[in-house]
Design brief:
45% strand, six-stranded mixed beta sheet, 45 strands, Jelly Rolls, five-stranded antiparallel beta sheet, 4% helix
Length: 573
């Protein structure tokens, strides 16, 4: 009897739905993943490595052991469209100074008679060419384009008449007013300023919205706008008001109250097109979806990772939770800093169950994101650190986790510093060394039966088609028949370059070069790497198979095109 031929078992859409940790891995289709660490899904649904965190700034202050953790980032945008980035850390506000190399975080001096700041967990908001900040146990602060000061020091300031200590925790600048809420002695009241005057809350057209008659026993957590309406998030309810341009007019009315669903983390609230994403006590929610479904059972955007998200909600510090929708990639990042995990909800491709694709990021504990900011120019900034890696701001960029360290003790002069290929910072006379740290990206598939759950497969070869990832070391583990013990193999990515070597660069090498001389211009466009095949021998037999791929990201992006397992049909068992 002739032997049966070796057959290819092709997985050309592996993992395109992202994570699913709710269903049994033996009952899911191969488009799902059961583990996805430091990976993303690109526009075509291909598994690719996340980018790195590139440290941009030096340390806050002069000590390399600084413990001022950056807990908030904000972008001030003036009427001319220019933007300035500010950071809150410990008891100070800092300005990101891009005129230095590396960038510096310059301490801001407050005018007037400033309060004593005790934390840096601000919510910043723009309103009428000024920049405001609020957080628990503090009176509001603001920046007028030149100076920082306490709001109470603004000329003509008036706090709400019924409030003894004006210390709101959330704000939004919309509809011609500054709206604030979360005042400790009246946490169920929303206060709004006079028209276009953000420091007057007790004169002119200023006023308040008392939520006691709307939702008894709840407190305001966050404020936002939605399709021309004011949205007030409580912990257990959401109230939506029509026509908030003139709160004293009859048109300003309660549109609806969404009961039983609220927001548990102020900084999770993010606008996403014509929608708002927020973290409720049972998972990540969409306001648009919540409104549409109203009293019907709600669809949770995090339904495929629901159990672990709700566990984090119970155990994590909600005041530290940060959420940010990144214009750079069409995804929402939700960070639980004290749990050292960030969930990435990718809205570029929606799954059959109408949820975003989910993957995760994690970092060295000292680098876990403590603040997130997506700017108008489409960049994602990250404030990070614990007590031994604080006072730093990084950019989601490149494919290294770039770290800058103070080596002034060894290279104390500019000459010595630059001779050692380090960077001299003239502002503080410091020498900075740059370290390109690699990081691990990994994913694990569901249990694969290839449409033949009762047929044994005699495993012969594994083949993967991967783009990019130069010099990436890859380990492939395969698990057989529900075993927790894996067989392993490894290979190194060595893609082949193609196309024009360089479009701009060295004379005689690039397409567009300096007219004279040998030239040393920096290349603008480097060669592209075409998909390459990587093969590995497999062994033994299995009815069902689970694959796990782990790679060391080493400066280059890698994208998985497809996977194929070559096997010979065995016995039915």
């Amino acid at each position: 009897m002739p032997s049966k031929p070796i057959q290819p078992l092709v997985l050309d859409s592996i993992g395109i739905y992202g994570l699913n940790r709710q269903s049994s891995p033996s009952a899911l289709e191969h488009q799902w993943l059961t583990s996805a660490t430091n990976i993303m899904l690109d526009d075509r649904g291909r598994i690719t490595s996340r980018q790195g965190i590139k440290q941009l700034t030096n340390l806050i202050g002069s000590s390399s052991s600084n413990s001022d953790i950056v807990k908030s980032l904000g972008e001030y945008i003036n009427t001319s469209g220019s933007s300035t980035l500010f950071a809150g850390a410990n008891d100070k506000i800092y300005k990101l100074n891009t005129g230095n190399t590396p960038y510096t975080l310059d301490e801001q001096t407050f005018t007037g008679t400033p309060q004593t700041l005790t934390d840096g967990n601000w919510e910043f908001c723009n309103f009428n060419d000024k920049f405001y900040g609020v957080q628990a146990s503090h009176t509001p602060i603001y920046y007028d384009g030149t100076n920082w000061m306490d709001l109470e020091d603004a000329s003509g300031f008036s706090k709400p008449g019924s409030v003894t200590t004006f210390n709101p925790t959330c704000c939004t600048g919309n509809f011609g007013r500054l709206w604030v809420a979360g005042v400790a002695e009246a946490n169920d009241v929303v206060y709004y300023s006079d028209t276009l005057i953000g420091h007057k809350f007790n004169t002119g057209a200023a006023g308040y919205v008392d939520m006691k008659t709307v939702w008894g026993g709840d407190e305001v957590v966050a404020l936002s706008s939605f399709m021309g309406k004011l949205v007030i998030f409580g912990k257990k309810n959401i109230a939506i008001y029509d026509d908030p341009w003139d709160p004293s007019a009859s048109a300003f009315q309660l549109n609806e109250v969404i009961e039983g669903v609220g927001c548990v983390a102020r900084d999770s609230v993010q606008a996403l097109g014509d929608d708002i994403i927020f973290l409720s006590n049972s998972g990540l929610r969409s306001l648009k979806r919540t409104k549409i479904q109203d009293k019907m059972p709600l669809t949770d955007l995090s339904i495929n990772v629901k159990d672990e998200i709700t566990t984090h909600i119970v155990n994590a510090d909600m005041d530290q939770v940060k959420g940010q929708y990144c214009l750079c990639g069409g995804y929402y990042a939700l960070s639980f800093p004290d749990r050292n995990i960030t969930y990435v909800f990718d809205f570029k491709g929606i799954n059959p169950d109408q949820t975003p694709r989910v993957t995760t990021w994690n970092f060295e504990t000292k680098k876990t994101p403590k603040a997130l900011l997506s700017t108008t120019e489409g960049k994602m900034y990250i404030g990070g650190g614990n007590s031994d890696y604080a006072g730093r701001v990084g950019l989601y960029n490149g494919y290294y986790d770039v770290e800058k360290s103070d080596v002034t003790a060894t290279y104390g002069t500019q000459s010595a510093c630059e001779t050692a290929s380090n960077t001299w910072e003239s502002t503080n006379s410091k020498c900075w060394a740059t370290t390109n740290n690699t990081y691990q990206a990994a994913f694990k598939t569901v249990w694969l039966d290839f449409g033949q759950p009762s047929v044994s497969k005699l495993l012969k070869r594994f083949l993967a088609v991967i783009s990019g990832g130069k010099n990436m070391s890859v380990t492939m583990n395969w698990y057989r028949d529900y075993s927790v013990e894996a067989d392993s193999g490894s290979f190194t990515l060595s893609p082949t370059a193609s196309g024009t070597s360089y479009l701009w660069g060295k004379t005689g090498v690039s397409l567009y070069s300096p007219k004279t001389g040998s030239g040393s211009a920096k290349s603008k466009y480097a060669p592209s790497f075409q998909p390459s095949e990587y093969k590995m021998s497999l062994s033994k037999s299995a009815k069902v198979l689970r694959m796990e791929m782990q790679g060391t990201v080493n400066g280059f992006k890698a994208s998985l095109q497809n996977m194929t397992v070559w096997a010979k049909q065995g016995k039915i068992r």
